[in-house]
Structures are given as structure tokens and as C-alpha cells.
Amino acid sequence: IRLSEPVPAADSRPAYPAPKPERAYNESPYPSTELRILAAYKIWGMVHYFFAYRDLMDEDWDDLLPAFLPKFIAAKDGREYNLVVAEMVSHMADSHAIVESEALTSFFGKAPVGLRLRLIERKPLVTEILDEDAKQAGVQVGDIVSKVDGESLVDRFRRETPYMAASTQQSLGNLVIERILNGPEDSTSTLTITDREGRTHEVHLKRSSRYFAALRNQRTGEIIKRLATNVGYADLDRLMPDQVDSMFEQLRDTKAILFDMRGCPHESMATLASRLTDEHEVPTAIFTGPLALSPDISTGRTLTSTASYFFVEKLPESALWKYKGKTAMLIDERTIGEAEHTGLFLEVANKTAFVGSASAGADGEVTRFVVPGGITIHFSGRDVRHANGGKLQRLGLQPNVNVTPTIQGIRSGRDEVLEKAVEYVSK
Q1: Contact predicate 289/381, CB 8 Å
Q2: Is residue 31 within 8 Å of residue 72, measured between CB atoms?
Q3: HEC states along 160-217?
Q4: How many CA atoms, within 13 angstroms, populate the side-chain half-sphere of residue 233?
Q5: How far apart are CA 187 and CA 130, in angstroms?
């Protein structure tokens, strides 16, 4: 498609005026019928023109507008309208596709209990206890939670999944289990728990948003350490960019380093990967994305076509010494977005191996927009692929060594993924 040249204004104003801020129509969580129709069309249009992975959706996006428009019109209150929005967005099958609103926060629950759950062997297992009252009530790591407030977790899972977008099944499980015990702030939850001896009992735990900060970090303990086998370890979930060089100094003479990326990093990937190779101009990832060409300011015409951009990201270079030992990155369903992009950097820097299970499968810069009712919607606006062109979205990083935690392992206090990684780099 031919792009017209922008014509600068005579008084040196920008050739293209800055866009006006989007109007959120947030006066009410339940906007008028006309505004609900506008919301449906806006969601359809934003995804149609700006979603980078429309080709990976399970359904034809064009078929979803006529399917959902009657639901937008029929929504009888704010809660139902917000759920219809979330349901439509869930069809994007993108773990970056998040819908935020007060109504949805209330639906999913504003505050967590002081327990971390993970799906282990398809069971909702307690893997960390943050609430001292829970410990005093007899809750132990390795216990299985079967009900919350009288509702089985299986039923709650089924009730919430239609309103959550996920790139992969492993990501969907993680997104739901992270919030499945949530409820109103300061409310008391009633949990039905089965312990390791098979005994079932109820515990009552207070919900509080103060637990969010502790739940953000997946692990505690030393961020950088040496393991007994002269293998180094760095927790990328907590390692800051300004700690990377110090980490390499501390682990300089180790035979291998394990990078624990079972969580969310802090923009350390470029500094980290640049310390692993002497090569120059190393491609790390391929980016493509949609470009909207409407309106054409210079001619006054409205263009309905779109174009796309393409570029190859390169690994930054470092003048510092390079680590030459083996490296492996620990991954699982919690490895998403920037964490997966860290994997793209490390695999091309020195062929870092992945140990664990498949990651979430959602990478790409996030696009944001609002629709009537004060609802904010996010989704992946860039298609990101491996440097060799291989797909990441809806697939995830694939482990070179596949290992998943077991219920027995967690009850025994073991980290089976870490153990397997140590075994792998020690060969």
C-alpha cells in the first residue's frame, strides 16, 4: 500500500496531531444500550486491526461480533455487561488479554488468603503459607484445597474460566489458581482441606490485599548462591539489573549457572545475556506487528487498509568478561511475557537449556484501550518469534529437559525441577 508523505505545518507544528485521549464513558459500570453496542464494535475493531495473533485464534474473529452483539444488548446490569466483555475478550486466547474493571475485580475477588496454591498433578496444592493463622490452624505445605466457601474448586474453576483469556492450557490453570480463593477484602474464607494423611477439615482464614506483595515473589531465600555441586544459582524473579554483574563475579568459577525464571523478571535479560557470548550482531527475536493507516492526515481520506512492520532484535554487547560455563533456565507455567523473552535472549547467547515444563506462551508488547463502563482491556500487540522464526505464542518455551513437580516431592520439601537442572548441567 502506498503511504502519503506527511506535510509539515507552516508554523512548525507536528505534521500529525496528537490523538485525543480515549473517552472511557466511565460514569456508570452499566452504560446505555447504545454505548454497550459501541463497546462491542470497539473490541471487535481493536482486535481486528491491532491484535498481533489473530491468525492463531481458535475461531474466526469476524464471526464473534454477530454472536456477541445480542449479549451486549441483553445485559441486564453492570455485572452481566462486564462479564460479557470479559467473555468476548477470552476468545482471543492470549494470556496478555486482561480485562480490568471494578465489577470484574468484585466478581473474581478483591483480596487473597495467605496461601499460595499451584496445580500439581491436577490438584490445587498448598505450596506456601504466608498467614500465621493458617499454620496455627494446622494447614501444611502439600495440603489439598477442595472447597472454598462451600463451593468446590472444580466448580469455581469452571465458573471463572469462561471469563479469562489464556494462550495455553497450562497458563489458564495458573491464571485461575492464582485467584481461586479470592473474595471481598477483610472477609473470612472457609476452606475445606485434605492433609497428607487423607484427613479432611475446615479452616477459616481472613482475606487481605496485604498478601499481594508477598505473593508477587515466587520464592524466598538467597537470590544468588552456590549449590553444593559447584553450580551457581540466580533467582531472576528477584534479581535486579544492577545485580547482574555482581552475580557473575560471585559465580565466576562455577562450572554452571542455573537461572530460575519461574516467575517474572525485572528487565535483566539484556545485561544477563550479553555476559554469555563474544559474538557480535546476534539476532534474539523477530518482531512483527500491525500498522494502522487511518486517517491519512495529508489527504483527508480515510484508509481502511493496514500494513505491518518487521524488525529483528539484536543482542546487546558487553565489554566485560564472558561466562563460559554451562547454563540452564528453569521454566514452567508461571514463565510468561518478559520471562519468556528472557529465554529468547539466553537461547541465542550461548544455547542455554530450558529445564522444567512449557511456559505460558504469551510474548509481545501489550496494547491497551478502554470501552464504555470504564473497562480497560489489554492484549498482545506484537508478534514475537524465536530468532529462527519459530512460534512462541500459544506454544510457550519448550523444555530441553521435561520435569514437573509432584505432590510427594512438594510434601517432602524438594524442588524437583531444580534437582533435575543440577543433574543436567553436572553431566
Answers
A1: yes
A2: no
A3: HHHHCCCCCHHHHHHHHHCCCCCECCCCEEEEEEECCCCCEEEEEEECCCCHHHHHHC
A4: 20
A5: 17
Residue with cell 529468547: 344
Q: Which amino acid belongs to residue 30? A: Y
List all residues 6 or more positions away from 299 whose beta carbon is below 8 Å from its beta carbon.
4
Nearest-5° Cα angle at 173, 106 to 112: 35
One digit per residue, pLDDT tens: the chain, 427 residues? 333 334 444 455 554 555 677 777 888 899 999 999 999 999 999 999 999 999 999 999 999 999 999 999 999 999 999 999 999 999 999 999 999 999 999 999 999 999 999 999 999 999 999 999 999 999 999 999 999 999 999 999 999 999 999 999 999 999 999 999 999 999 999 999 999 999 999 999 999 999 999 898 889 899 999 998 999 999 999 999 999 999 999 999 999 999 999 999 999 999 999 999 999 999 999 999 887 665 555 555 555 556 788 999 999 999 999 999 999 999 999 999 999 999 999 999 999 999 999 999 999 889 999 999 999 999 999 999 999 999 999 999 999 999 999 999 999 999 999 999 999 999 9
Q: Which residue has the cell 563474544?
A: 278
Domains of the chain, with CATH numbers? 108-215 (2.30.42.10), 217-279+315-361+396-425 (3.90.226.10)
What is the rounded CA–CA span in Å between residue 263 and residue 196?
27
- C-alpha count within 13 angstroms, C-beta hemisphere, residue 383: 18
Distance, C-alpha 50 to centroid of its chain? 19
Cβ-contact 363, 380 below 8 angstroms? yes
Closest CA to 44 of 61, 25, 27: 61
Cβ-based neighbours of 328, under 8 Å, separated by 6 or more: 256, 258, 259, 352, 353, 354, 355, 401, 421, 424, 425
Q: Are 264 and 237 in contact (CB under 8 A)?
A: yes
Return the closest-CA partner of residue 115 out of 95, 134, 87: 134
How many of the other CB atoms lie within 10 Å of CB of 266?
14
Least Cα distance to 356 among 326, 337, 335, 342 occurs for 335
How many other CB atoms sit within 10 Å of the CB of residue 207?
22
Q: How is 10-26 classified by DSSP, letter by letter?
A: TT---SSPPPPPPP--T
296 to 6, 20, 237, 293, 304: CA distances (angstroms)? 9, 16, 44, 7, 10
